[in-house]
Write a structure and sequence with these properties.
With about 160 residues, this protein is α+β, with helices and mostly antiparallel strands. The protein is built from 3 helices and 8 strands; from the N terminus they run H-E-E-H-E-H-E-E-E-E-E. The N and C termini lie far apart (about 45 Å). The relative contact order is 0.14.
């Protein structure tokens, strides 16, 4: 089975199970690493708290027997990993934008807007067409199709 088919099958079968545990299955990858093939499940907590090692262990223990029965790789061996995407994960989906409302984000653009290709500001709203940030006490609207990347603005 091809990698794309494997990740689609795993995502389809595990999404609701992981959701019932209190997490979102954010992404699934199946790729070669130094130790062999790795099936990695990336999770996000539904309560927006950081994902802990205990969270990853819970999801791993829950899905491991399900994957054994499903056999998405048709008997080929793989390592199962459950991980967080981390704080600096990209903001792509509406669910991601919802999580980040009222937080500072960094938006990088494909083309300049008002002479700038990067904006940092508080995410005030979004829809399918645009993102509205509060930048230096001024609302700035950015066309979503012009966005190259978005991430939380993490300050330590």
């Amino acid at each position: 089975m091809q990698g794309g088919k494997i990740t689609s099958l795993v995502s389809e079968k595990l999404t609701s199970i992981i959701d019932n545990l209190g997490y979102e299955l954010y992404d699934v990858t199946y790729q070669k690493a130094q130790n062999g093939m790795n099936l990695t499940l990336y999770i996000v907590r539904n309560d927006n708290l950081p994902v802990t090692i205990d969270d990853c262990e819970l999801v791993h223990r829950t899905v491991d027997p399900i994957l054994d029965e499903l056999d998405p790789t048709n008997g080929e061996s793989y390592y199962l990993n459950v991980s967080s995407l981390g704080l600096n994960r990209p903001i792509k989906t509406d669910k991601d934008f919802n999580r980040c409302l009222e937080n500072d984000i960094v938006v990088k653009l494909y083309v300049s807007q008002n002479g700038k290709k990067e904006f940092v500001g508080k995410l005030k709203s979004f829809d399918n067409e645009k993102i509205t940030l509060l930048v230096d006490d001024t609302e700035t609207t950015i066309i979503r199709s012009n966005v190259a990347s978005c991430k939380l603005d993490i300050k330590f």
